[in-house]
Design brief:
This protein has a domain of 155 residues: 2-Layer Sandwich (Nucleotidyltransferase, domain 5), CATH 3.30.420. Helices cover 35% and strands 27% of the residues. The protein is built from eleven helices and 18 strands. Strands 1, 2, 3, 4, 5, 6, 7, 8, 9, 10 and 18 form an eleven-stranded mixed beta sheet that branches. The longest helix is centred in the last third of the chain and has 22 residues.
Length: 355
């Protein structure tokens, strides 16, 4: 039995089995025949995910492949659309990249706090059952992956980061402070920012909410400034690398992004700090605060000085986009592996769907 962590984000889809992880942009495009693939294109494959997938008779390009090759590509910041139109395609492609043909697996995944109650059962049922995905790699080799998901547990998204800090790869509690302390989590994603409190492993309804203050808010400011200067409306998902690099080339001209990025990040950090400090005003006994999520990685230096409370450091070499999905997989081991049963069980999610 394999235990898998799966995170279907607005910005990136992430999956891990504990030994390897795959990440790709949550972009879905129409598949078309690529007429020319030279050695440079073939070399791109590497250890990255295969992003040409056939699912239930429909064929897709996903992630960076869709960005490069699809004439029609889709990307959403709407939770209902993500669930109804894209989640299954993104999830099954991610899982097929990491699961062996014929395997049965159990999956832990998460949802933003404001979508958790509304969509947790739908997401579990969407994933449950037998699936067949045909993957085609960059040299045209096809591989069919059949797998069965027999259990799914959906939890509030930020708890993934808590479990990642709290549990080891076998799902055993190794950092007991989380059994004894009250920890605030700020999980900044692409579309949303989730704030929650883990009070001695218990979820605090009062201290939890979702806001629209995801990193896309900063990207919208940057994209708006670029459109004014260049006349080009740059898609938000194409800004990741440019923001990290500090510049972007549009129609042969370089545009510096450092100044506008700092302004946008400062503004977004102020909004999140205001939300959090207000939400947790009565929770003055929080022991530590954790900043996590892919957006949290980019925003951390701007946000930390504005948050009231002691910060809990996360290993700086870690890709913060993966904190939740690593925690989901560890929690899966805790739930379903006998090696994890003797440990105190955190209560973070609904009853799992079973097949």
């Amino acid at each position: 039995m394999e235990y898998i962590g799966l995170d279907i984000g607005f910005g990136f889809t992430k999956v891990t089995n504990g030994n390897e992880s795959k990440v790709f942009k949550s972009v879905v495009g129409e598949a078309n025949e690529i007429q020319f693939q030279d050695s440079l294109i073939k070399a791109v494959g590497g250890d990255g995910p295969v992003l040409h997938a056939e699912i239930e008779g429909s064929t897709y390009f996903l992630g960076e492949l869709a960005e490069r090759q699809s004439a029609v590509r889709s990307f959403t910041l709407d939770q209902n659309q993500l669930m109804s139109r894209y989640a299954k395609t993104l999830a099954l492609t991610a899982l097929a990249n990491i699961v062996e043909d014929g395997n049965a697996i159990r999956v832990v995944t998460g949802l933003p706090i404001n979508a958790y109650r509304r969509h947790k059962d739908d997401l579990a049922q969407l994933l449950m059952g037998k699936h067949c995905v045909r993957l085609t790699n960059v040299v045209g080799e096809e591989r069919e992956v059949n797998f069965t998901i027999d259990r799914v547990r959906v939890i509030p998204q930020p708890f993934g980061s808590v479990f990642n800090l709290m549990l080891n790869d076998l799902g055993k509690v190794t950092d007991r402070r989380f059994l004894e302390e009250k920890v605030g989590i700020i999980d900044v994603g692409f579309r949303t920012a989730d704030y929650t409190i883990c009070d001695r492993t218990q979820y605090s309804e009062r201290g939890s909410r979702t806001s629209d203050a995801g990193i896309s808010q900063a990207f919208k400011i940057i994209a708006g400034a670029l459109q004014e200067k260049s006349g080009v409306n740059v898609e938000l998902y194409r800004l990741y690398e440019a923001v990290e690099r500090g510049s972007i080339k549009i129609r042969g001209k370089n545009f510096g992004l450092k100044r506008i990025t700092e302004q946008a990040m400062t503004q977004l950090a102020g909004q999140i700090a205001s939300d959090v400090n207000g939400l947790w005003a009565d929770d003055w006994d929080i022991d530590h605060v954790v900043i996590t999520g892919g957006g949290g990685g980019a925003l951390k230096t701007f946000l930390e000085p504005l948050i009231e409370g002691e910060m809990l450091a996360i290993e700086s070499s870690t890709d913060m986009r993966l904190n939740n999905v690593f925690g989901y997989r560890k929690y899966a081991a805790h739930l379903w592996d006998r090696a994890g049963q003797p440990q105190a069980a955190p209560e973070a999610g609904a009853e799992e769907a079973t097949g």
